[in-house]
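Duplicate of #3305? Posting structure anyway:
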């Protein structure tokens, strides 16, 4: 009798069929197939060519809905649903889990695994007002992107190059457009941050405006607040730490 050789068993689809919650649904933990991984890589890289950021984000939400519907235990979800329950702060962890079948050592999920949007680790205080809650969802992120001016500085530069106009007056007008775009973008960013903070008010006060934000924060601080809302993560150094970079200037 011929001895039986040991076999290499690949169990990508069958090794793990555990349920996990996300939002108001439950899903099976079937790992991504090879075809799904190809689609995911395309969505993460090649699909960005020729798309602006809002278009790319919406295309990715459709892709996430497709993957989740292959694993859902209940009613199907759509891009609006994935936009509500996924965001920049949790989508990478979700996709890593679907690719590997675990989120820590071993082949099963680590205890207490949560794939929902995370709560902000620290509340935000600005001008005596207090804000907190969950990190941004993709729907909120898209609202932020859609509030920015349509034409960016790259588009302006491309248009100038295509027109090929070296007239000093024309170039001056283009430069003014760049300055106007920058100013409009910063005010729009402040307004979008104000809108996100207004739905995260913890002190019972009134909603805040972009003008209020710009009265209390610098441009860099507006960007820091938005990045914190987007990622749900603290910077390595708190802006209030007594580090050499932010010690009071004296004498």
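Output from current build:
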């Amino acid at each position: 009798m011929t001895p039986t050789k040991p076999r290499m068993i690949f169990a990508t689809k069958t090794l793990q069929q555990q349920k996990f919650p996300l939002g108001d649904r439950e899903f099976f933990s079937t790992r991504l197939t090879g075809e799904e991984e190809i689609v995911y890589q395309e969505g993460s890289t090649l699909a960005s060519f020729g798309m602006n950021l809002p278009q790319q984000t919406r295309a990715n939400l459709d892709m996430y809905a497709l993957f989740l519907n292959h694993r859902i235990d209940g009613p199907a979800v759509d891009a609006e649903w994935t936009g509500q329950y996924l965001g920049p702060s949790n989508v990478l962890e979700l996709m890593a889990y679907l690719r590997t079948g675990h989120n820590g050592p071993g082949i099963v999920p680590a205890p207490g695994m949560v794939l929902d949007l995370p709560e902000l680790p620290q509340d935000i205080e600005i001008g005596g007002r207090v804000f907190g809650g969950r990190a941004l969802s993709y729907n909120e992120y898209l609202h932020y992107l859609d509030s920015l001016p349509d034409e960016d500085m790259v588009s302006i530069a491309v248009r100038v190059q295509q027109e090929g106009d070296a007239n000093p007056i024309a170039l001056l007008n283009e430069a003014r457009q760049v300055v106007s775009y920058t100013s409009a973008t910063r005010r729009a960013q402040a307004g979008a941050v104000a809108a996100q903070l207004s739905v995260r008010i913890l002190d019972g006060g009134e909603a805040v405006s972009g003008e209020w934000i710009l009265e209390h924060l610098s441009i860099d601080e507006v960007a820091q607040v938005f990045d914190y809302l987007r990622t749900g993560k603290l910077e390595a150094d708190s802006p209030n730490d007594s580090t050499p970079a932010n010690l009071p200037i004296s004498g």
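Confirmed duplicate; merging threads. DSSP finds nine helices and four strands in the chain. The chain has two domains: 19-100, 124-231.
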